[in-house]
Specification:
The protein has about 325 residues and is of the alpha/beta class. The chain contains 14 helices and eleven strands. A hairpin with a 2-residue loop joins β1 and β2.
Length: about 325
């Protein structure tokens, strides 16, 4: 039994769809269906029932899902332990300067890191991307700058072209309640989003991503705030949808109450390190840890083909 099989199984349970889970894990629908069937054969039980609203976990499937979530969490902790090596990044404190957008994208990683690297909690300082770009070369060399840059931001990309090291490519996605009409779609379109109430994190970078994706059109923003709990309540009630991204959807533990749905012709961005941390510093070691974590815990995500995360065409359920 492979860890990847358990991860896919949990994604199918979350989305109630083989095709959605296959897209999230960057494998074919046929491959995903075969993995689920093999898991049922190995466990000698039926994990899903097919219903008009999608796949539904059986009683045995719910029990297996609980244990699979525990096993997947333990596996990721093991990968973090290996990536940390000695388990310490040195005596000096680790300072990470990042935009709120990036901090939210890497929240799962930071949580898991803090659990494993006891006593070395990163000092997180949030700045806007535009403030970071203006000042990163004047900050201390032992500070790690993490930013996200989209290809349409040509002026910023040109300015930092020699100092930006991309680590991972991502696509913007929709996050909605499992009961929202979007949850049953293989993908949504920018036109769908333009007509739907949005609950957005109040950050300029995200606003630019959404504005570019909508072709300069005015989004229907019901709620714009930095209060994530308030956004979560609006999404859970079905009043609005919000945004996530392909990396976050891959990394986060599946939540049966929500769904992450691809956007057709979505906007993309690169997440990476800006500047060069001092040699031997905690910042440099954490950058290496981040790269190792992505290469191990997110291996299938990192190995996808360019553009594979975008919803270029519908996939039949």
């Amino acid at each position: 039994m492979r860890v990847e099989s358990l991860s896919l199984f949990l994604s199918v349970a979350q989305h109630r769809s083989i095709s959605h889970a296959a897209r999230q894990h960057f494998i074919s629908q046929q491959g995903a269906s075969s993995i689920v069937k093999s898991l049922e054969t190995e466990l000698e039980t039926r994990l899903f029932d097919r219903t008009p609203s999608g796949l539904q976990l059986t009683a045995a499937g719910r029990a297996v899902a609980r244990e699979a979530a525990v096993a997947l969490s333990a596996y990721r902790r093991m990968q973090i332990a290996a990536a940390l090596g000695s388990g310490s990044l040195g005596d000096e404190p680790l300072t990470v300067i990042a935009s709120p957008f990036v901090v939210n994208r890497l929240d799962t990683l930071f949580q898991e890191y803090e659990t494993m690297a006891a006593g070395n909690r990163p000092r997180i300082i949030e700045r806007s991307l535009f403030d970071i770009v203006r000042s990163y070369d004047r900050d201390d060399a032992d500070v790690l700058h993490l930013v996200a840059i989209s290809p349409f931001m040509e002026r910023i990309a040109y300015r930092v072209r020699n100092d930006f090291t991309p680590l991972v490519e991502c696509e913007l996605m929709v996050a909605c309640s499992a009961d929202h009409p979007f949850a049953s779609k293989n993908f949504v379109t920018p036109a769908d989003l333009a007509a739907t109430p949005l609950a957005c994190y109040g950050e300029e970078f995200l606003a630019r991503l959404v504005g570019h994706m909508l072709g300069g059109g005015r989004p229907n923003v019901l709620l714009r705030t930095s209060n994530l709990a308030m956004i979560g309540r609006a999404v859970a009630s079905g009043e609005a949808v919000t945004f996530t991204d392909s990396l976050s959807a891959f990394m986060e533990q599946p939540d049966l109450r929500t769904a992450a749905v691809p956007i057709k012709e979505s906007v993309t961005f690169s997440l990476g390190v800006l500047g060069t941390p001092a040699s031997g510093s905690s910042a440099e070691m954490f950058a290496h840890f981040l790269e190792r974590y992505l290469a191990t815990s997110c291996a299938s995500y990192m190995e996808r083909r360019p553009g594979e995360g975008a919803a270029d065409e519908a996939v039949a359920l």
